[in-house]
Amino acid sequence: MSSSFGSLFKISTFGESHCPGVGVVVDGVPPRMSLSAADIQQQLDRRRPGGNRLGTERDEADQVQILSGVENGLTLGSPIGLLVKNKDQRPADYGSMSQIPRPSHADYTYRVKYGIHASSGGGRSSARETIGRVAAGAIAEKFLLEKYGIEIVAWVSSVGAHDAAQVDLDKISREQVDANEVRCPDSAAAQKMTAEIVAARSDKDSVGGVVSCVCRNLPAGWGEPAFDRLEARLAQAMLSLPASKGFEIGSGFAGARMRGAAHNDPFVQKGDRLGTLSNYSGGVQGGISNGEPVYFRVAFKPPATIGQEQQTVDYQGNATVLAAKGRHDPCVVPRAVPIVESMAALVLADLALIQKMRS
After folding, report:
1. What is the largest CA-CA distance in the chain?
2. Would the pLDDT of 42 be above 70?
3. What is the CATH number of domain 4-358?
4. Is residue 47 within 8 Å of residue 335, measured between CB atoms?
């Protein structure tokens, strides 16, 4: 089972949804960088469950412990071990479901592949695994901001059929994003999104949505041609997230409806560098950053666990009815915001170190 990501700035996550703890080993962090648990905790707090009425009722503090790689507040250049203990796990909630592959979950595919799967929760396929990604991503973000001035901001741009208005990619901030519980900077759309999520929960159902993200101040020249294109690395990162179902960058699928004369990004002089007049390319051309904001979107499906009864079969093929138990999000996108930011940071930190090798 592959649980690692990255080449030079590399992470390996561990743990299941209802085991004693989850975490990550981060390798490739430059030495002598200031780092404390508080630097990491801020993003974990934004991701943690039990934070508001729109998420799961599972209540976890998600306090991070730094186990290695940091001494006297400075990174040593050695692997950094991070651990978050599970405090509110309830494996007994899943006892009655252990012999039934839950619809749209990974129970069946894991069992077919490995001959065994975690008996409670989603195991490694649970969103609980993303704690390690967020913790590692917080380190990557700190490195990118201090070394290159790169800023990464994600927000909820749609829930169900409700879309937010376009934002100013140069000005959108996390303070604006976190101003409401659905993490949408468009307050009017946020009210409709919130109502949609509350209604889905009341109906014992779930709803999907889209998270948008911008990476600002990225230098031109990062990314590789062909197979390791910047957008390909981002797509891999985002589509590795639980419940993700789609990725598009720049104009995305809408660009397929345009003609080249309208879609092309003409070059202009911007201060001491060349820039583009428009940004349909999403900050990437030929797989390499062009100095404009990198802008992409990630689609997330409705969470698979719902409280409604569903007709299905058990592992022996016998017809049965499943009404899932446990504590689950009716919509994942508000909590996915820091996860998307973290995965973007991990991709960019890795590319930064690769580019540095060329100089």
Report:
1. 69
2. yes
3. 3.60.150.10
4. yes
